[in-house]
Specification:
3 helices, single chain, 0% strand, flat, mainly alpha
Amino acid sequence: MPGPLLTVTINESYRRGFVAAPLLVAGHAVLEATLIVLLVLGLDRVVGNDLFFGVVGVAGNGFFWGGGGGGGGGPSSSGWGWAWPST
C-alpha cells in the first residue's frame, strides 16, 4: 500500500534525481534497525503501557491540530506546508 515514504521518494526523485531513492531507502533501513534494537533491549515494555498510549495520543492530537507548527488552528495552519483540499 502506498504511503508517505512513497510520496517523499517520488517528490525527492523528481527534485534530486536517482540519488534520492537509495538515500531514502538507507535512511529508512537505519530507522527500522534502530527500532528493532530498541525493542530487543526492552522498549516493548514501554510501548505496551497504557500511559504511553495516552501520552502519544494526546501529543499526536495536539501536534496535528496546530501545536507542532506554530499556527494553532487546524491542519491548514500547522506550518508544515500542507492543508486540507480547498472546496
